[in-house]
Fold this sequence. Notes:
With 344 residues, this protein is an alpha/beta fold. It is built from 11 helices and 9 strands. Among the domains are: 23-62, no CATH class; 70-205 and 216-247 and 301-312, Rossmann fold (3-Layer(aba) Sandwich).
Amino acid sequence: xxxxxxxxxxxxxxxxxxxxxxxxxxxxxxxxxxxxxxxxxxxxxxxxxxxxxxxxxxxxxxxxxxxxxxxxxxxxxxxxxxxxxxxxxxxxxxxxxxxxxxxxxxxxxxxxxxxxxxxxxxxxxxxxxxxxxxxxxxxxxxxxxxxxxxxxxxxxxxxxxxxxxxxxxxxxxxxxxxxxxxxxxxxxxxxxxxxxxxxxxxxxxxxxxxxxxxxxxxxxxxxxxxxxxxxxxxxxxxxxxxxxxxxxxxxxxxxxxxxxxxxxxxxxxxxxxxxxxxxxxxxxxxxxxxxxxxxxxxxxxxxxxxxxxxxxxxxxxxxxxxxxxxxxxxxxxxxxxxxxxxxx
Length: 344
């Protein structure tokens, strides 16, 4: 045989074998010139979960390009999830009941369960397939309950949840306001909503390319921070704090971006979107317009990530004017009785 190669599964030795933890490569006296690609799991060496792939720059770039439609459909969500979870450090919480709303495959629920070990964690998603995938990766010490439900009609009692966590789910809803209202219903007074969503600048390059072809909205509209803040306050979620993060990625062709969007489940929810099939000439025109934005790294794509937090008010909207029992020793005077005294 003139050409041959051997593959060895060696993902559990990095950090464990070798004088400096460089896996079985070190014990066998092999270097990166002999083994150009190394895969390592983190559970054996660090007692954590996850994995890594290490190799030369050119080889890693080749893997990224060949696997782009899979890697980047989950990479952005993973990056945002890490950032969103880190923001829990700013709050002194001892939640008893936590909801991961729009949990997907429940990576967030697992992290929340590890962080708050005494809390009950509910992983809620409308897609049964996502919840089945979450069940396959649920470890006994990070167990969470899986619930298939709509974010607009949560099967939870009012004021029964201490923390609602939602990572990149709101942009999938036609209007975030009803979701906020349902979150406010289930949150206890003082409970926290922590969320991330896509902002209005997301996919602006693709939107501009389509705009040069016709006037139909081919790219869905995403909410901006003022709209989100108004919706939060309207339903009784107080002290909203938000900030945004702009991320620029590059794709080799427009087709690669659109394939990724389809695989990630993204959809255009605009009511005035085109209902018929997009013709070949329109698609070619969009691609040509997009090519005029090309830079050395490829076709630019902007992702605007909005991070937000708000607390449930002590009173639901509309409750402020309701009469309540007057405590002993206290007298209440209606505002209508405080008019100006008529002069004699």
